[in-house]
Amino acid sequence: MTSRLHYNQPVILIGGGALDADALALARQFASPLIAADSGADKVPTEQLDALIGDMDSVSDLAAYKQVNDLRVLHLSEQETTDFEKCLYSVEAPLYLACGFLGRRFDHALAALHALLRHEDRRVVLIGEEEVAFLAPAHWTISLEIGARISLVPLRPVRAVRSQGWRWPLDGLGFALGVQSGTSNQASAATVSADFDRVGMLVLIERRFLAQALESLGLKKHAVNSLGAAGDE
Q1: On the chain, which terminus has fewer CB atoms closer than 10 Å, C or N?
Q2: Is 229 exposed, middle or buried (0-12, 13-18, 19+ CB in 10 A)?
């Protein structure tokens, strides 16, 4: 049985892709534990890491990391999943803020989106250089500035049953890759909402709205200020 780590507050996942300091600083406003996916460990100071997870094929010095006190190392050798997915299935947390998984290599970014869909039971927010991306719940509501850009990309066929607060309403539209997307829609009211017939719609909004994105996923900023306890099973 694979070891699992348990946290009672949101965690930050660090990938080996493009990682800018502003993205990490923003994530730290809402979460404390830092968990590296393989070579993501080389992106941040070792003393800040809580855990290192992956198949360890690209981290700089696995032996050295294993000697770090209080650093949990989960060496998962299976090759059926990416290191990002290994983090998602081996870490239990109320929400995951993922930095360093978008940008640089497009195939890695696509693999991260694939992971969102495979683990749709997890609440995951990918933080990029300009935007944040996440799967919308079937019943989704968010507070935004009027005129804020909202892009929708269906990762599987999804139908919008009802919508409010959109410049271009979604009601009744069937979304699917190669058929219908929703790039560069806008908020026409302070509250934007949509009901979808299933989970599978990727939402992309400006990074400055991360707090609103987290609230739309059911998490409040004041509830994530202290580091939660973690344990193994």
Answers
A1: N
A2: exposed
Neighbours of 55 (CB within 10 A): 17
Chain mean pLDDT for the chain: 91
Instruction: Tell me which DSSP letter residue 200 carries.
Output: -
- Contact 206/22 with Cβ under 8 angstroms? no
CA distance 32 to 160: 35
Residue of 24, 144, 146, 14 lying closest to 87 (CA atoms): 14
d(CA 36, CA 16): 8
Alpha-carbon distance of 115 to 178, in angstroms, equals 20
- Residue 178: DSSP 8-state: T
pTM: 0.91
Closest-CA residue to 213 (of 9, 87, 30)? 30
Q: Are 208 and 148 in contact (CB under 8 A)?
A: no
**Structure confidence at residue 34 (pLDDT):** 96
Banded model confidence at residue 223, pLDDT cuts 50, 70, 90: low
Q: What is the pLDDT of residues 31-76, one digit of tens each?
A: 989 999 999 999 999 999 999 999 999 999 999 999 998 899 999 9
Give the model's pLDDT for residue 227. 38
Q: What residue ranges define each of the domains in the chain, with the CATH number in brackets?
A: 5-129 (3.40.50.10240), 139-206 (2.60.120.320)
